[in-house]
Amino acid sequence: MEKYVLHMADTRGKADYGWLQSRHTFSFANYYNPQRMNFGALRVLNDDIVQGGMGFGEHPHQNMEIVSIPLEGDLKHTDSTGRSEIIKKGDVQVMSAGTGLTHSEMNAHKDNMVKFLQIWIVPNKINVAPRYDQITLRTADRKNRLQQIVSPSAEDQGVWIHQDAWFHLGRLDKGLELTYTLKKANNGVYSFLISGDMTINGQSLNTRDGFGIWGIDSLEIKANDDTELLLMEVPMEHQSGLD
After folding, report:
1. Distance between CA atoms of 172 and 177, rounded to whole angstroms?
2. What SS3 state is found at 20?
3. Domain ranges of the chain
4. DSSP 3-state assignment of 220?
5. How far is CA 242 from CA 70, 99, 126, 164, in A?
6. Neighbours of 236 (CB within 10 A)
7. Does residue 19 carry a pLDDT above 80?
8. Is the pTM for the entire model greater than 0.70?
9. Sequence-separated (6 or more) residues with CB below 8 Å from residue 32
């Protein structure tokens, strides 16, 4: 049976620390909503704006798959695996925290803000060796199609994580219609509209709205305006992990 959950943009949790403005789709930090703990294995979807020269100092994670997607500006990453990288728009970064690591995320510039999505996925395997990866994507490959950016396999397109999850980004022109077929039975799909106006399986969505749906085999997507969309297919049942 088809089931769904709708999270309108203005109903998300909000944090404003001056140097950081963040919107939380699911419970995180000081935002707690027992009705919004997760969508299957999708545990965190944070929509962050970091002011110039500021950022998140060194802090720990454990047993979580963490995906970062820059939307504007450059993010400087350092971690206890020895990596130090600049993540730019068009890049996708992943960390498998596993047995534990520390990292920091800073705006790489003093004069410009950086905007990025940070997503936490509960893994299907815990206490793995910590791992970092980053790729640069051809953004042209998401023009009027869905570009895969995350998968469970290192042999597949995008970065890989320890979970039967697939992420896709699309930049769709007004009027375009397409179908997304789920990769695995009993998974669900959480759609996050980065910008624009679209309809998914009859549900209208606007900028920064989120729509989770499960009990289905495919999604029917129509762009009602020029849109940018993130689709996250995840298991609806999962092993528990730690953050």
Report:
1. 9
2. strand
3. 3-235
4. strand
5. 24, 10, 9, 18
6. 16
7. yes
8. yes
9. none
- Number of Cβ atoms within 10 Å of the Cβ of 67: 23
φ/ψ region of 71 (left if φ > 0, alpha if ψ in -120 to 50, else beta) reads: alpha
Helix/strand/coil for 141 = helix
For the structural domain made of 3-235, what CATH number should be given? Answer: 2.60.120.10
| Torsional sign, CA 153, 88, 14, 194 | negative
pLDDT digits (tens, 9 = 90+) for 39-91: 999 999 999 999 999 988 889 999 999 999 999 999 998 888 888 889 999 99
Tens-digit pLDDT profile for residues 177-225:
999 999 999 999 999 999 999 999 999 999 999 999 999 999 999 999 9
The three state secondary structure string of 103-131 is EEEEECCCCCCEEEEEEEECCCCCCCCCE
Question: Which residue in 230, 191, 198 sits closest to 212, CA to CA?
Answer: 191
Nearest to 190 by CA among 105, 67, 77: 67
Classify the phi-psi angles of 217: left when phi > 0, otherwise alpha if psi is within -120 to 50, otherwise beta: alpha
CB 188 within 8 A of CB 231: no
Q: What is the pLDDT of residues 142-183, one digit of tens each?
A: 999 999 999 999 889 999 999 999 999 999 999 999 999 999
- Amino acid making up residue 118: Q
Burial of 223 (C-beta count, 10 Å sphere; 0-12/13-18/19+) = buried
**Residue 9 phi/psi, 5° resolution?**
-55, -45
Among candidate residues 204, 217, 230, 203, the one with its CA nearest the CA of residue 146 = 230
